[in-house]
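User: Can you recover a sequence for this backbone? Please restate the input before giving your answer.

Assistant: Of course. Working from this structure:
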């Protein structure tokens, strides 16, 4: 029969696992916010502003793509963190992932500002 780890190690493993779960939930919250942004920009904004809908629909779809990306990468990240916890290895978030989401967020923000200014 295998020996159980000392209580301190077990507590540390539990805290690390729960931290990974909170991180996964943060990815979900971000995806839900992007989904709300997609609906707001793509569907509600053209009606409220009484403007041509197609640019807003395209921008809303871009926010929806962001939401999908957040869900996919968040699930992969959760898997990687749990694997790292089991193996005792470190699994940092890659700069590539950070750069892609940061660049995408900047692009969406700039396009949103341009669209808003164009309606003035």
């Amino acid at each position: 029969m295998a020996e159980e780890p000392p209580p301190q190690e077990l507590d540390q493993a539990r805290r690390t696992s729960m931290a990974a779960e909170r991180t996964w939930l943060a990815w979900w919250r971000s995806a839900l916010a992007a989904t709300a942004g997609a609906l707001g920009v793509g569907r509600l904004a053209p009606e409220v502003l009484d403007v041509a809908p197609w640019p807003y629909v395209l921008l809303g779809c871009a926010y929806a793509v962001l939401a999908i990306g957040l869900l996919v990468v968040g699930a992969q990240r959760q898997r990687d963190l749990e694997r790292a916890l089991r193996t005792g290895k470190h699994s940092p978030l890659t700069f590539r992932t950070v750069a892609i989401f940061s660049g995408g967020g900047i692009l969406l923000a700039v396009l949103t500002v341009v669209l808003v200014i164009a309606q003035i």
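That completes the design. The two ends are 73 Å apart (CA to CA).
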